[in-house]
Write the structure tokens for this entry.
Amino acid sequence: MGIVARKEKQKQELRQLILDASMKLFTEEGFSNVSVRKIAERVQYSPTTLYLYFKDKNEILFHCCESGFKKMLEQNIALALISDPIERLHQMGENYLNFGLEYPEYYDLMFIQEAPMACLHDMGKGWSSGDQALEALKTIVQDAMDKGLLVPSKVETVAMAVWSMVHGLVSLAIRQRLDKLVPAVEVEKTMHESLDWLLKTMKKA
Amino acid sequence: MGIVARKEKQKQELRQLILDASMKLFTEEGFSNVSVRKIAERVQYSPTTLYLYFKDKNEILFHCCESGFKKMLEQNIALALISDPIERLHQMGENYLNFGLEYPEYYDLMFIQEAPMACLHDMGKGWSSGDQALEALKTIVQDAMDKGLLVPSKVETVAMAVWSMVHGLVSLAIRQRLDKLVPAVEVEKTMHESLDWLLKTMKKA
DNA sequence: TTGAAAACTTAACACTGTTAATTAACTTTA
DNA sequence: TAAAGTTAATTAACAGTGTTAAGTTTTCAA
């Protein structure tokens, strides 16, 4: 039975190889320039072989997306050290902005493209990594309210507001919209100021 | 010289015909299902003919985008009747959410896709309609500050924050992300609550 | 009526995701 | 060890995409 296990392992290895190649590809050449054929070329297999390891392109993108979330969650480990909920929320927002600006292709996949969600819908359930990030957000908001640092409101409402704001900042920036509001060189700075403004504004006086 | 004028008019008519067909197409079949060939079929011309009237597909999308802004600005006319800046800002936000939810395909084009911006960059300048909308936003924010209804801050910072928030709400909703935070049936309601929360929160006590 | 200019179409290129049919490789059985 | 069966990978193909170059038809002026 060792042989079937080895085969299974090889299968997993090629699977991972494909995913790694895909991720490299779209960090290097951008999301819209990633095609099944290009991925196949990188792993030195025929394009159709990929379909023996993944249902379709969406599934590949979905898994890339997942490892994007991993990256993101890693950045948030240090948050546990911050005791003040508001400050922790602020830093979480900063991390979010930085992640989006540093890995725009990943961000695109995780929060803008519909392909990964389509896949998720296809194959049952569980946005495990995404849900995890959202839980973290809700927890902080709840914590802040419990400690009387925020005006009491529905947690989901505030969490949605905060998430939407940082997502709005990043996605508008990525899609070249924010430089219609302020000069291009000031975009990034102003983004941080906006986040700062939000946190200051929502903090209970 | 009347003849050259008539020709020019006919040219403009076909141009408009193409644009109308395009817009119908992607409100009916969705953005990702719009192709040059499909547009051509609707106007009963060869696909390559469209290239005599537009530089490329991006340019067509750009002009569709422009008429999306027109639609949006129309909704905002009634805002002038609201004297309280905060309330006016609130209503502007509501209009924004409603527009995005009602015409997701237009919204996609106007604020999510990069194609129209690529075109804009190609052909010199002027995001006229978009700029107009942003000016309106800045004006209201400035007005609210002047009247002491907001804590004084840089206008651009606050405007960016507000825009980002409503854009975040709409774009996350359109891309099926918000139903990971609250049940699908409550998404729309919670979006409005979040906007409401922001306005209440930013209003000077 | 002829010749030039404008308008339009056909054919083709280089891509895309994906499926069916076919070949190559490896495992198991006789 | 040889034949049979199973798995893995490939080639060929389909239907679609945006776009360009070359050829055809139509329109207009001399």
